[in-house]
Specification:
Number of helices: 4
Low-confidence stretches: 162-171
Number of strands: 6
Radius of gyration: 15 Å
Distance between the termini: 19 Å
Oligomer: single chain
Strand order of the largest sheet: 2-3-1-4-5-6
Length: 171
């Protein structure tokens, strides 16, 4: 089964995005950072097929869990086909966002940049700095309002087909 991993710094809405894509409340969501420490998995069913979605703890948290969380994320990314890099679309980019971006570049996986918490289309005007992360067009979403979540599954399916073709060429 295809595997997609959601990655980002703490409190950017990774678990909310996970729940929205699963179409059920499976991961715990809170307004404080550090709630998700373990990996959470669920199967997303689409009209084009299914894939395993993995929610992760926030990277570069600066707390006692930081090293263990990174080890878990490393393991999750080993066989991932696509990464959803979640950033808070309503906040300025932080040093941790840039560090996560560099970490993902080193992993060499296809990355979809997801701007979370973009509740209103007017807020898309403020997404320009996200291009500085180097992952192309950010997809603005609002998990709370189900904004553009179907586009995620469609784009993920397309990226997984490309990843599979590349994998076959490498053999």
């Amino acid at each position: 089964m295809h595997k997609v991993v959601i990655v980002g710094r703490p409190n950017v809405g990774k678990s909310s995005l996970f729940n929205r894509l699963l179409k059920k409340r499976s991961a715990v969501v809170a307004d404080v950072p550090g709630v998700t420490r373990d990996l959470k998995e669920g199967v997303v069913e689409t009209d084009r097929g299914r894939f395993l979605l993995v929610d992760t703890g926030g990277l570069w948290s600066g707390d006692k869990w930081e090293k263990k969380i990174q080890e878990k994320v490393d393991r999750a990314l080993e066989d991932a086909e696509v990464v959803l890099f979640a950033v808070d679309g309503r906040a300025e980019l932080t040093q941790a966002d840039y560090e996560v971006a560099e970490y993902l570049r080193r992993k060499g996986k296809p990355v979809i940049l997801v701007a979370t918490k973009v509740d209103d289309p007017k807020h898309e005007l403020y997404l320009g700095p996200l291009y500085g992360l180097g992952f192309g067009d950010p997809i603005p979403t609002s998990s709370e309002h189900a904004r553009r979540s179907e586009e995620h599954t469609s784009e993920l399916q397309s990226l997984m087909r490309i990843s599979y073709a590349v994998f076959c060429l490498k053999k």
